[in-house]
Amino acid sequence: MKKIALYLFATLFILAGIGHFLLDSFFIAAMPDWVPFRSAIVYGSGVVEIILAITLLNPSTRKPAGVFIAIFLLLVFPVNIYMALTPEKFSVPAYALWLRLPLQFVLIWWVLKVRHVE
To answer: What does 41-64 look like in DSSP terms, one character per residue?
Structure first.
């Protein structure tokens, strides 16, 4: 069961990274207009998500990868707050954007658990 949780998390994180390229306009809109280089940040963070997910799958890099993913999730949390505060910019119900906020902490808990899978 623990391995399934690991592979599921890594798969979701890889898909999220790919989403930065397929849905780039959505991710760019998720940042305030005053943020410089928004498209570069979107593409760069997509690459980072994919790389971190792959390193999470490797037993020799799994523990540090889990910590880096948790830090990454904390660093992008302000974007989730911005989205919740500006729901009119997105074709997502406002309540879903607010529910996403605690979900970020569930993801952090999840990755910190699966980083210990042997």
So the answer is: HHHHHHHHHHHHHHHHHSTTTHHH
Phi and psi torsions of 29, nearest 5°:
-65, -20
Q: How far apart are CA 49 and CA 9, in angstroms?
A: 11
pTM of the model: 0.91
The 10s digit of each residue's pLDDT in 69-78 is: 999 999 999 9
The pLDDT tens digits for 78-91 are 999 999 999 998 88
Q: Where are the alpha helices (DSSP H) in the chain?
A: 2-22, 24-29, 38-57, 62-75, 77-85, 94-114
CB contact at 8 A, 82 and 21: no
For helices 94-114 and 2-22, give the axis angle rounded to 10 degrees: 130
